From TrEMBL:
It catalyses: Endonucleolytic cleavage to 5'-phosphomonoester. This is ribonuclease H. It comes from the Eukaryota. SUPFAM superfamilies: Ribonuclease H-like. Its EC number is 3.1.26.4.
C-alpha cells in the first residue's frame, strides 16, 4: 500500500436482528479452533467476533485533563498467558504524526478503537467480521457517515471549522482498510452506556495513569508503527458486504 495514495473503505453500522438484542444475547464467549484465547463469538456465526471499546477523560474540558482508553475482548474471569480480559492505556500527548494534541474524551474514544484494531493478538484466527461495540455516537456516526462528508469538504465541517482529531480519523480508516485487505469487515455498533461498563472501567483506569508524551505503538500488530503523512490522497469506497 502506497503511503501517499491509498484506497480506504468506509465501514458500516451494525444493526442487530431485533431492537432488543444486546451483545450478550448475540455473542457468547468461546475458544474455537485457531483462536489464541477466548473471544466473544456470534452465536449464529463463528466468523464474527465483538470487542467493546471506550474512552474517558478526567477533568474533560477543564484544567489538567487526563484521558485514557480501553477495550475488552473477554470476561474478567478469563486469564490466558498472564493477560486478562482487556487492555487500558493513557492517551498520549502526541498524536501519530508527532504533534501535541488535546486530552479529550472524544479523542480517547477514537484512540481506543485504533488500539483494539491494532491489538497484537488480532491474528488470523479465522474470523471474517469484527464488531466494535461502543457507546460513543461520535465514533460510530463519524466512522460510518460523517467522515465521507468531511473528506469531500477537505476535512472541514459544514460550519467551515476544521475537523478535530483528523490524525486519528485517518489512522482509523487506514486500519479498517488493512483489515479489508485481509478479508475482515469492521462494523460499528452503538450500544447503551450501561452495556459498556467493562470498557468504561478500563478507560477510566487508563485515564488515571501517569502522562505519556510519545505515541505508543505497543499495541500494533503490524510490522512497523504507522506514521501518517500529510497531505494524503484518499479514494473512498463504501463497504460492499451484503447487509
Amino acid at each position: 500500500m502506497d503511503d501517499d495514495d491509498f484506497t480506504i473503505v468506509i465501514p458500516r453500522e451494525f444493526h442487530p436482528p431485533r431492537l432488543a438484542d444486546t451483545p450478550d444475547s448475540l455473542f457468547s464467549q468461546r475458544v474455537l479452533p485457531g483462536m489464541a484465547r477466548p473471544r466473544f463469538v456470534r452465536k449464529t456465526d463463528k466468523n464474527q467476533v465483538i470487542f467493546w471499546t471506550d474512552g474517558a477523560c478526567l477533568n474533560n474540558g477543564k484544567a489538567n485533563p487526563s484521558a485514557g482508553g480501553g477495550f475488552v475482548f473477554s470476561t474478567p474471569n478469563v486469564k490466558h498467558d498472564g493477560k486478562y480480559h482487556g487492555i487500558h492505556f493513557r492517551l498520549e500527548n502526541e498524536g501519530p504524526n508527532g504533534n501535541i494534541e488535546a486530552q479529550t474524551s472524544n479523542r480517547a474514544e477514537l484512540r481506543a478503537v485504533i488500539a483494539a484494531l491494532e491489538f497484537k493478538d488480532r491474528s488470523p484466527e479465522g474470523w471474517k467480521s469484527l464488531v466494535i461495540a461502543t457507546d460513543s455516537e461520535y465514533v460510530v456516526h463519524g466512522a460510518t457517515d460523517w467522515i465521507t462528508k468531511w473528506m469531500d469538504n477537505n476535512w472541514k465541517r459544514s460550519s467551515g471549522d476544521a475537523v478535530k482529531n483528523r490524525d486519528l480519523w485517518e489512522l482509523l480508516m487506514d486500519n479498517i482498510s488493512r483489515y479489508e485487505e485481509l478479508g475482515i469487515e469492521i462494523l460499528f455498533w452503538k450500544i447503551p452506556r450501561e452495556l459498556n461498563k467493562l470498557a468504561d472501567q478500563k478507560a477510566k483506569e487508563g485515564a488515571a495513569l501517569p502522562a505519556i508524551d510519545e505515541w505508543n505503538p505497543v499495541y500494533s500488530a503490524l510490522n512497523e508503527p504507522i506514521k501518517l503523512k500529510t497531505p494524503m490522497l484518499f479514494t473512498v469506497l463504501q463497504s460492499l458486504y451484503t447487509k
